[in-house]
Amino acid sequence: MKNNIKYITLLALGMIACEPEFENPIDESGNYESGEANFSNYVALGNSLTAGFADGALYITGQENSYPNILAQQFKSAGGGEFTQPLMNDNAGGALLSGTQILDNRFVLAFGADGSPKPAIYTGAAPTTEISNNLGNTFNNMGVPGAKSYHLVAPGYGNVAGVPAGTANPYFARFASSATTTVIADAVAQNATFFSLWIGNNDVLSYATSGGEGEDHNTTGNLDPATYGSQDITNSNVFAGVYSQLVDAMLAGGAKGVLLSLPSVTSIPYFTTVPYNPVPMDATTAAGANLAYAQYNGGLQQALAALAGTGLLTEEEVARRTITFVEGQNAVVIEDEDLTDLGAINPAFAALPKLRQATAEDLLVLPASSIIGTLADPNTPTSVIGVGVALEDKWVLTPEEQTAISTAQSAYNLTIKGIADAKGLAFYDAAADLEKVATVGIPYDGGVVTSEFVRGGGFSLDGVHPTPRGHAIIANGIMNALKSTYNTNLPKVRPGDYGTVTLSNDVN
């Protein structure tokens, strides 16, 4: 086997990176109206999608191009008031706690030694945002990166003393009104006349990005979010109860609002960029790899024969677990905990691991591109990750795990739409628009926004969060929903005026 198996370069793309615009002009022509809505005091509730988080960090340019800030600028043409945000101190993106950096700088698009573009951590400036310096104010943008639905009602979520232990959120700690307050309490205290709510994506996202390492509480039935792990899926009944509580709290003062559906987690570039078969082999290398797995494949056949007639191991599962390489592109070898534990059935087969090759139905996470084809042990030429050494379960989202995510998101979206209808609120189907971005793309004045990593323009370099151009698409979609529900007439923005990803050579 060759010392290094080179796989397809994922980011060998020809593109021009654009700096986002800080300000975009409002078209003053036309008769703009607020209709039945009152935009004089707009408060946006949500997580990183609302805050303007992008490129793996929160930074000023991303915040100023967040969809709530874009909306607020358009609202001004129909009676909208000022819109304040808890801006970071710089565009580096990292943050400090008592002088020690605890949050990484943002990604920028850089060029490697081989000349190919790829995301890299920005090193051009040190972060200057100190988490412990509370801003002493409430803000119209109440988006808190990392927040799950139930975090918005959790007392102490902004207590800076809890940040090191992970019991509090560093972003909310910067602007929480007290150490014991909740996000929703600080939002309600602002007496909003209009609000937006986009929450719930993180209730499944951390499970997805961890390759399904957490627990699915729709399966466990656990209704106590205080006991949930950070990578768990929130029980849909818990979500429904919390979401209803959030909406009722914002409506208590007579505000109107818009609720946003949750897009499919598995359609974002984080899960669609790395192919399942990124390993090229010539005939000689393939033959060597097959020889290395001959004993493993033979053991599967022995287990099948020994367990014949028991129904504990089928020919279909053995075929799924059999590992074979060919000349050309090959699927990576992965761990799959959903496979039968043969050692538990018969100790004679305890040495047979839960391995198989990935299929087109598996989703490899974006960071896997940095390890596939490298050596797990630099002194062992056959320890090629994805070939001689299986890709760990955390790098792969299997079909079973995708089903758990889809089931939860579908239930969450039924809750969101049901509450919007019952309360007479506007509903923006963000899931539908972002599905278009992922499949056919959404046209705008200068081209088409897609979800293709880097080049598509819709998603930032973390593969999860929208670019400013993506936020512009979302803002226009929300304004369509407001027109339908509240008879508003607001000026749309031009997505082409908004940037995509940032090019920089300030990296190590």
Automatic annotation (TrEMBL):
Name listed for the protein in its UniProt record: G-D-S-L family lipolytic protein
